[in-house]
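Re-run with default settings, no changes from the original entry. Doing this only to confirm the output is reproducible before filing.
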Amino acid sequence: MDPKKPDILFVCYGNVCRSPMAEGLAKFLIGSNARIESAGLAPMLNGAAPEAIATLRQMYDVDISHHAPKSIADIQLDLFEHVIVLDVYVFEALKKLYPSFAKKLTLWDIEDPFGQAMSAYRKTAEKIERMIENNLVPLYSA
């Protein structure tokens, strides 16, 4: 890990929709100016949701098909400058599980599209894109 490079971790519940979408979009929008990863409170499935993969491919030509869900329990939180949590439930759970890292947590309350129509995935991707553009791109542009 490059000590000069800031690190961003996106966290949602299952690490199959929102956080992999956020990871893929942040890598696309920020590039190599930060190390970007994602994890879940309770990882599900064997990869990103097919709808999340299709949405990013269609809307941004971003490929997250290689994504492998990870548990927040397997992540060394002290390596991350920013831990962006994508819903209130996970945010509150992380504050209880990792109280010493509560100051690093930032809440972006974004609805989980899991199990919904493709339009919900598109709305989620658009919200995540706006949040990255407004909050992270200005910090990490070259």
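The mean pLDDT is 93. The two ends are 18 Å apart (CA to CA).
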